[in-house]
Design brief:
alpha+beta, Alpha-Beta Plaits, five-stranded mixed β-sheet, diguanylate cyclase activity, transmembrane helix, transmembrane, Diguanylate cyclase, membrane
């Protein structure tokens, strides 16, 4: 499989560390960070909707609290706590788009803990609440925790936290709990946490596997199999992007087009396998001499293009000359006479992608016409 260095030239698709740990995350921290950023951005609307709906429902439960709590002081404390938590969530709902994506999981976990504490606070103010009904309420909270996109480990921590908090408070606050009911609720909560954890882990696992598969498929579709350079389709996209960027920000942009002199003679004399090897080794030489920001693509046959953002014509010509010498000297060692010609052009305000390619091709034609094995720009 071809390689590509950070999207510039060669990516080794088998180099992705696909291992997923017990927390449902990539072992490769960089890959996990990349996946998480994309996943959170796609889940943002869902997170906002779930949090807002649960907050509104929590406020509506004040109606039931009004009839259940004869003590008005206790009802007032509960109402104040719920209203404050609702205001807090409303602020978070409005500001969530401005929260740093990497910290969003922390904020979601924070609000889940806040609502768990609110549930326990309300439970503590009930006079002789029904233990089984409140136990079902905890199960609903756990299910909601696993519904909201978050880190798998955080889901488990919040679920265990609210379960232990509920059982501890119930044991000390509710006086008429039957032992069989208490143990039954422990079993029910454990089953809900275990089943939800299995479901969440599978979801985390397969989302990451799908992400890797999609990433590899996208890269395969963008790369020339023989040379490992970008293919023409990908180059067209990159060229348009960087031309637009240079036009907008008035930054230099240069383009190099090169091919091998008398490449047909190499194929005819030594065979196509040798010709393919020339392409492969030359592509490797090129990628070793360019930056991560540069775009390297196979234009077709033995023609290659280098797109050099933030690079003026003099720097581009210097690079082309280094490549010309490196390719020639490399193949002298292999007893092959391989030389190359280069056309170099710098973007101007009047250019677009097509005119830039045309001008570079004209420079390459000039290099061929004036003796080959040279750089013209």
């Amino acid at each position: 499989m071809p390689k590509r260095n950070c999207g510039v030239c060669v990516v080794n698709f088998t180099n992705y560390n696909k291992k997923i740990n017990y927390f449902g995350e990539f072992v490769d921290s960089e890959l996990e960070r990349e996946f998480s950023l994309r996943d959170v951005q796609r889940s943002l609307r869902f997170i906002k909707a779930i949090i807002l709906i649960l907050s509104i429902l929590n406020i509506l439960f004040l109606i039931a609290d009004y009839f259940v709590l004869p003590n008005q002081n206790k009802f007032f404390l509960i109402a104040v706590a719920k209203i404050l938590s609702f205001i807090l969530v409303l602020v978070f709902y409005i500001r969530i788009n401005h929260v740093e994506i990497r910290k969003l999981s922390m904020w979601v976990t924070f609000f889940e803990i806040i609502y768990s504490l609110l549930f326990l606070f309300v439970l503590n103010h009930y006079e002789n609440p029904n233990f089984l009904i409140q136990g079902f309420g905890v199960m609903v909270i756990i299910i909601c925790v696993f519904m909201i996109p978050n880190r798998f480990i955080n889901m488990i921590i919040v679920s265990i936290f609210v379960s232990i908090g509920f059982l501890t408070m119930s044991y000390s606050h509710i006086t008429d709990i039957e032992v069989s009911e208490f143990y039954a609720v422990i079993v029910y909560l454990s089953v809900v946490i275990i089943l939800s954890s299995i479901k969440a882990y599978r979801n985390h696992y397969f989302k990451r596997i799908h992400y890797i598969d999609s990433k590899e498929l996208l890269e395969v579709s963008s790369i020339d199999h023989l040379s490992g350079a970008y293919n023409r389709v990908k180059l067209d996209k990159e060229l348009k992007k960087w031309v637009d960027y240079s036009k907008r920000y008035n930054t230099p942009l240069s383009l190099i087009i090169f091919d091998f002199d008398d490449f047909k003679n190499i194929n005819d004399s030594y065979g196509h396998l040798v010709g393919d090897n020339v392409i492969i080794q030359s592509a490797q030489i090129t990628q070793n001499n360019i930056r991560e920001a540069d775009v390297f693509a196979r234009w077709g046959g033995d023609e290659f293009i280098l797109l050099l953002p933030n690079t003026d014509i003099d720097s581009a010509k210097d690079l082309a000359e280094r490549l010309r010498l490196s390719i020639e000297n490399h193949f002298i060692k292999t007893m092959l006479n391989v030389t190359s010609s280069f056309g170099v052009i710098e973007y101007t305000d009047e250019d677009d992608a097509n005119s830039l390619l045309y001008k570079a091709d004209q420079m390459l034609y000039l290099a061929k016409k004036t003796g080959k094995n040279s750089v013209k720009g």
